[in-house]
Design a protein that fits this description.
The complex is a heterodimer.
Chain A lengths: L4 H8 L1 E5 L3 H12 L5 E6 L36 E4 L3 E5 L4 E4 L4 E3 L2 E4 L3 E3 L5 H4 L4 E2 L4 H12 L5 E4 L3 H12 L4 E5 L6 H18 L3 E4 L3 E6 L5 E6 L4 E3 L2 E4 L3 E3 L11 E2 L2 E3 L5 E3 L5 E7 L4 E5 L5 E5 L2 H15 L14 E6 L2 E7 L6 E8 L4 E8 L2 E8 L5 H9 L21 E2 L14 E4 L16
Parallel strand pairs in A: 1-2, 1-7, 2-3, 7-21, 9-16, 10-11, 10-16, 11-12, 19-22
Antiparallel strand pairs in A: 4-5, 5-6, 8-17, 13-14, 14-15, 18-19, 20-21, 22-23, 23-30, 24-25, 25-28, 26-27, 26-29, 27-28
Chain B lengths: L4 H6 L8 H8 L3 E2 L6 E3 L2 H7 L5 E2 L17 H6 L12 H10 L10 H4 L1 H13 L7 E2 H6 L1 H11 L6 H13 L9 H28 L5 H7 L9 H17 L1 H14 L1 H9 L4 H11 L6 E6 L3 E3 L2 E3 L5 E3 L1 H4 L34 H18 E2 L2 E2 L19 E3 L2 E2 L3
Parallel strand pairs in B: 2-8
Antiparallel strand pairs in B: 1-2, 3-5, 4-11, 5-8, 6-7, 9-12, 10-11
Helix pairs in contact in B: 7-9, 7-18, 9-13, 10-11, 10-13, 11-12, 11-13, 14-18, 15-18, 16-18
Classes of the chains: A alpha/beta, B alpha+beta.
The complex binds flavin-adenine dinucleotide (FAD).
The site of flavin-adenine dinucleotide (FAD) has 35 residues of chain A, from helix 2, strand 2, helix 7 and strand 24.
Chain lengths: 463, 413
């Protein structure tokens, strides 16, 4: 075989992965599977080997599993050099080097960035330092929060009713703890699934004994003399006594370390092409820097080539796989990452799943089951086509709706289905909040403009 | 496409090895010979149709002209037993299946099946101890049949002594799924009807007793009923009980027998299993792919015209999904005709998929794992006396009627 640059890379090249979690690990495994025999370095700022996050807000808070025991199962040995507990602090693209916080430099031939997101902290610094104030993203967060729930607090306050906040509230109720949820929007999950489904989620909260307060902001937290949180002040002028507070305000992308590197990285993530190759700030695609997972932002053909950032487990796995494949392939053998977004959550005993991009939808139709029974399928429509779907305890049908999204099938669906009820005969407005009004963070961020959307005028610079 | 391939599949002469016919069938992924059912035979098509909400399992949606040789279902209405959840769509299906699941599986009875492990092992041990003359064992009559039957009786709370009575009914009802070309349809319909009636009356009596004096068995718990869905009506309870009893009879028997037959045809695998009983878990999965006890689902009909691979299947048509063919689809599985218990990629269709996926799967798996690993461990030098063995008539619930084997002796338990 000809000794191409690619063969050389595979045999003795240096690949560096920054972000040693789900996407980083899966990419590394794929690279070895594809016969990469060179040196592989995984850099992670957390001191642990890769672990799984979804159980943190589910089993761990219920006391059914330890935060320490959520290590990700390995699909194969990867024979990597692990640099754990040290953050990457910079990138020199010209010299092909990653700079570490401890001053070391790690050279690469190919770089994969999988630094994910972090929890958005409670904005007031003094208040977030109070004992009893938490966020939930890492294993340490999970362990600490579980401990504080074990201690039997009198009242937990969850700020933000997105998926994570709702799961935390659900876990509290399952343990018999009093919990208040304060949500700036009109309903839980409204940013991800819209008001029609948000209303169902709100009922779910209330029926399960959550003190749900919507249209409310927490304006401040108050501590006692020992520095423990004891109350929260709400925008309606009331004060709520609570001894545990979880700020569940969505996520921020871990891209600061790339500032000044010239890579197209910012608060919305790192822009890349459909093949996971990162763009530089000039909009030119790089050849040696790849991106995967929560930190990536890539255009999707099914959704008008809008750039999607997804905080979805399955996306991290699939995108890591594609990135790894492409890193080790000739340009003609590369594959696009065209994964149809899919997400799951479980709360209050209900299994919630979604596919596609519900938040792009303007209308929704309940095609099966009923909202009153909390067992249904809702299909989202956008400009006359199916763009997303959500199921509550109805996930066995989801595959079909995923195919409908892939086939850009018409909306409303023109056919009968089993279990169609009278309230599912017609689409209704999906009722998403105005995107300029912040709610809790959604798990899908759409960015970039659709070509139909001529909002900016381009004025080329004079020569 | 050879003509009459469906009748060849149904023809008893091809029962021992229908797989070449399935291979032929897959060349026309949506097969329809003008009058009969629409037959779907490739993996991905079956898989996606099992998740397609436009497909109904309720035979009341079948057009009168659907022309399905398996669908002479008059027997059901005549007995006035309502259809079991196997033959219903949501929301009725979901409600009944959910209620049935309460005493059987998670989240309400999370350890029920696993808790049966010791009991199952005792039955297996007893049956093997009593195999008798090792020069002529009929593994079906002496082992594969009595084992699951004893178990389903215990689970449901049906007296094992009555087995002789409901054995006949169960046999007749299972046979009603099969269009035996040699039998007189009117006669068959009559005997199906009678069997359902008698089985219904028998179960009604039992349920009455359980209502008065509930035990720990599933019938008692279903009869008493609790939970947000309320309880089942007596008629619903009867058809559910009949479904469980028959499904508990006629499928695991074939899984175990097919399993032993396959092992005896693959002595290297049998030896591996004897060495390490943990192999039983992946082995049973591969078996469910390779020789599934339910070969095809004849019970689907579209609610509207649907398109599959460019063919429009009209509303109300009868559709058959050939699970066993999908399981051997080279478009899905590498080297599909090879029995390989070490296969990693094994998302088979052997237990169906979607909302009707096999209700008893956890129990069936456990029974087959225990049965096969114990047989492998205890039978010394087992060998087939007849290959292929004689099969049952049934093309849907396919399996050997007898499996004659011999061995040099029986190792102690
Ligand atoms: C509580 C919780 C529940 C969830 N539940 C679900 C669910 O039910 N369903 C679902 O689909 N998804 C769920 N998710 C989302 C899912 O966990 C993420 O999509 C997934 O973890 C993304 O993987 P990733 O590798 O891209 O990023 P991450 O898992 O965030 O990993 C990024 C890693 O990079 C490290 N890092 C960051 N910056 C640097 C740096 N400069 N140098 C070195 N290392 C760095 C981070 O510390 C982290 O370890 C949940 C997430 C959380 C937190």
């Amino acid at each position: 075989m000809a000794d191409t640059a690619l063969e050389q890379l595979k045999r003795s090249g240096k690949i560096v992965v920054v972000g040693a979690s789900l996407a980083g690990l899966r990419a590394a495994e794929t690279m070895r599977e594809k016969g990469f025999a060179g040196s592989l370095t995984l850099i992670g700022d957390e001191p642990y080997e890769p672990y799984d996050r979804p159980p943190l807000s589910k089993q761990v808070l219920l006391g059914k599993g330890d935060a320490e025991h959520t290590a990700l199962p390995r699909r194969r040995a990867i024979d990597a050099e692990w640099r754990l507990g040290v953050a990457a602090s910079g990138l020199d693209m010209a010299a092909r080097k990653v700079l570490l916080a401890d001053g070391e430099e790690v050279p690469y031939d190919r770089l994969l960035i999988a630094t994910g997101v972090r929890a958005r902290a409670w904005p007031n610094e003094a208040e977030r330092e109070l004992d009893g104030v938490f966020t939930l993203r890492t294993r340490e967060d999970g362990a600490a929060l579980a401990r504080s729930l074990n201690a039997g607090p009198r009242r937990v306050l969850v700020i933000g009713a997105g998926f994570t906040g709702s799961e935390i509230a659900s876990a509290c109720r399952e343990r018999g703890l009093e919990v208040t949820v304060a949500e700036r929007g009109d309903a839980p999950l409204v940013g991800a699934l819209g008001g029609v489904i948000g209303a169902v989620a709100a009922e779910l909260h209330r029926e399960n004994g959550v003190d749900l307060r919507t249209g409310i902001m927490v304006t401040g937290l108050e501590g006692d003399a020992t520095g423990r949180v004891r109350a929260a002040h709400l925008s309606d002028g009331t004060t709520l006594e609570c001894d545990v507070v979880v700020a569940s305000l969505g996520a921020q992308r871990n891209t600061e370390w790339l500032t000044g590197s010239g890579l197209g990285a910012g608060p919305r993530g790192i822009a890349c092409d459909a093949g996971c190759r990162a763009f530089d700030i000039r909009g030119i695609v790089t050849d040696d820097v790849y991106v995967a997972g929560d930190v990536a932002r890539s255009p999707h053909a099914l959704f008008g080539y809008q750039f999607l950032s997804l905080e979805h487990w399955g996306n991290a796995v699939a995108q890591a796989d594609t990135a790894a494949h492409n890193m080790l392939s000739e340009s003609t053998d590369r594959r696009p990452h065209l994964w149809v977004p899919a997400f799951w959550s479980s709360q209050f005993g209900v299994n919630i799943k979604s596919v596609g991009v519900p938040s792009m939808g303007t209308e929704i139709m309940i095609t099966q089951g009923s909202r009153a029974e909390r067992r249904f399928t809702g299909v989202y429509g956008y400009q006359g086509r199916v763009i997303g779907a959500v199921t509550f305890d109805n996930s066995r049908w989801l595959q079909f709706y995923e195919q409908q999204i892939e086939a850009t099938a018409p909306f409303p669906p023109p056919f009968t289905t089993v279990d169609r009820r009278s309230d599912g005969q017609r689409p209704i407005p999906a009722d998403f909040p105005d995107p300029s009004v912040p709610t809790h963070g959604p798990t899908i961020t759409l960015s970039g403009y659709s070509p139909a959307d001529r909002r900016i005028t381009f004025t080329p610079a004079g020569h | 496409m050879s003509h009459g391939i469906l009748s060849q599949i149904l023809d008893y002469a091809n029962r021992a090895n229908p797989y070449p016919l399935y291979e032929e069938l897959r060349k026309t992924p949506v097969f329809h010979d003008g009058t009969g059912p629409y037959v779907i035979s490739t993996y991905y098509d079956i898989q996606s149709l099992l998740h397609d909400p436009r497909l109904s399992s309720d035979s009341r949606n079948l057009a009168a002209t659907a022309g399905d040789p398996l669908a002479e279902d008059g027997g059901e209405e005549a007995t006035a037993l309502p259809p079991s959840f196997l033959k219903l769509d949501p929301p009725e299906h979901d409600r009944l299946r959910r209620m049935t699941n309460r005493p059987f599986g998670p989240p309400h009875s999370p350890r029920r099946v696993d808790g049966m492990r010791d009991g199952l092992r005792d039955i297996v041990t007893g049956l093997i101890d009593n195999l008798g003359d090792t020069e002529g064992i009929d593994l079906v009559d002496q082992f594969a049949y009595p084992f699951p039957v004893t178990m389903i009786c215990q689970l449901l709370g049906v007296p094992r002594e009555d087995e002789a009575r409901f054995h006949v009914w169960a046999d007749t009802l299972a046979a009603s799924l099969d269009p035996d070309p040699d039998s007189d349809p009117a006669e068959r319909q009559r005997s199906t009807h009678d069997s359902r009636m008698e089985l219904g009356m028998y179960l009604a009596g039992l349920i009455e007793e359980r209502r008065k004096k509930p035990g720990d068995d599933m019938l008692s718990q279903l009869a008493v009923g609790h939970g947000p869905d309320d309880s089942m009506s007596t008629m619903e309870l009867l058809s559910t009980a009949a479904l469980l009893l028959i499904a508990g009879h006629e499928t695991t028997v074939n899984l175990i027998t097919n399993g032993m037959l396959t092992l005896l045809r693959n002595p290297d695998v049998l030896a591996q299993l004897r060495q390490d009983s943990r192999l039983a878990v992946p082995l049973v999965e591969e078996l469910l792919r390779f020789e599934p006890p339910v070969q095809l689902l004849p019970q689907r009909t579209p609610l509207v015209d649907i398109e599959v691979r460019g063919t429009t299947i009209p509303k109300g048509s009868s559709m058959w999904l050939i699970l066993a063919s999908g399981n051997r689809d080279p478009g899905r599985f590498k080297d599909p005709d090879r029995f390989d218990p070490h296969r990693k990629d094994i998302q088979h269709l052997g237990l169906g998929s979607g909302i009707h996926s096999c209700f008893g799967a956890p129990l069936a798996r456990l029974e087959a794992q225990l049965a096969l690993s114990e047989l492998a461990r205890r039978l010394e030098n087992p060998r087939l006396l007849e290959d292929p063995p004689p099969y049952r008539q049934n093309a849907v619930l396919r399996g050997p009627r007898h499996l004659r084997i011999a061995c040099d002796g029986i190792r102690p338990a």
